[in-house]
Amino acid sequence: MSLSLSADQPEAPADADDGAWLECIDCGATFAPFDDVRYTCDECDSLLEVRYADLPTFDDFEGNGQGVWRYADALPFDSGVSVQEGATPLYEVPRLEDEIGVEALRIKHEGMNPTGSFKDRGMTVGVKVAKELGVDRLACASTGNTSAALAAYGSRGGMETLVLLPAGKVAAGKIAQASLHGARILEVDGNFDACLDIVQELAAGGEAYLLNSLNPFRLEGQKTIGLEILEGFLADYDTVPDRIVLPVGNAGNTSALYKAFRELVQAGALDEADVPKLTGVQAEGAAPMVEAIENGADEVRRWDDVETRATAIRIGNPVNAPKALPGIRETDGTAVAVSDEEITEAQRDLASEGIGVEPASAASVAGLRKLRAEGIVDDDERVACLTTGHLLKDPDAAAAAGSDPEPVPADTEGVLEHLQE
Ligand SMILES: *Cc1c(COP(=O)(O)O)cnc(C)c1O
Ligand SMILES: [Zn+2]
Fold first, then answer.
1. Which ligand number lies closest to the CA of residue 45?
2. Pairing mode of beta strands 30-31, 20-24
3. Which ligand is located closest to the Cα atom of residue 40?
4. Domain 119-210 has CATH 3.40.50.1100
5. Is 3.40.50.2300 the CATH classification of the domain at 90-114+217-401?
6. Nearest CA to ligand 1 atom 5
7. Span between the terminal Cα atoms of the chain, in Å
8. CA torsion, points 166, 167, 170, 173, in degrees to nearest 10?
9. E strands present in 316-378
10. pLDDT in tens, 48-99
11. Which of 61, 75, 283, 356 could form a disulfide with 391, with the two C-beta atoms 3.0–4.6 Å apart?
């Protein structure tokens, strides 16, 4: 199976371009990467992956600077449409580490990217591919962050952008970003999955170039999250993490991290036995991946009604499930659902260590806490939790989870009196 950790390094087919090509994860059909616009397999309609004739080891990244393009040897280009994405902090959180009870806990805060989420890593590559293909209009469906990133990177690349959002279900900061960066914002009277259905049909009809995570090039950029985490752990602990815990929406990151690890194994840079256990977390009200993992199912059942205050992962039909399910299983990981209350509690805990995240991001920490309490995560594990978006993305959720302002009079005496109450 092409998605197995022990798969051999592939050989370049005739249609490869500079050692890169697209390959179907199911039937193995190969396609030239930049000749035509293509999102899925012509033969069987399944998902595509970018494949390379030469895969880098960590040594190849040495001396390359910081950020996504440090890892150009693992990407289809040497440079992209960039606003300096990547190189995000891998924070220590000693109190949380202690309280949850693991050997080491680090927070990879993707909210520290230029537009405040990891989506920037995918867009710096995806928008570059759009330029290479010569398209002039970009589009995505989004729970918010994809639209903010696409709007910023599209405008940086000088292209028109169209974003489809579920009306009333997108956090304020994200709409503000898409708006100011100049996207046309279409508010759809339906949920994210309906938006994605529509934008896929628009893309199939040639109306726009699709930059959802169905687009295999986005996941190439997002692989660099995994490469940064591994380099960070190797530098600080001389070993890679035992486990990486991450929020799951469309399961793009789960797929991208797994691909990063598979390529390192194929390149001989990582032992199969050392690959971190990929551990996905969903909100209880939107947990089709968790259901599939718990039932040992090969496919995910689409949930038509989804609800959670973690709006970034309010998704019932994770398009990358065929890539992500093998990723979780082959790495001996798992998936877990958490309640909105557990998410908010984890958001407060992170904030108390100085780390501001939006609700979906806190799901990773909430999930780790739950799995540790259940004994599924051991106390001797070194763990990285991914926090996917910044606190300011969803100011309403932050204000609701935090403390209320206290009205005081406009004189020092009155303020002192109030403080003594
Ligand atoms: C997009 C997004 C997710 C979901 O990521 P997937 O790769 O689709 O699983 C999670 N959190 C935030 C903040 C996001 O913006
Ligand atoms: Zn196919």
1. 2
2. antiparallel
3. 2
4. yes
5. no
6. 249
7. 67
8. 130
9. 334-338
10. 999 999 999 999 999 999 999 999 999 999 999 999 999 999 999 999 999 9
11. 356
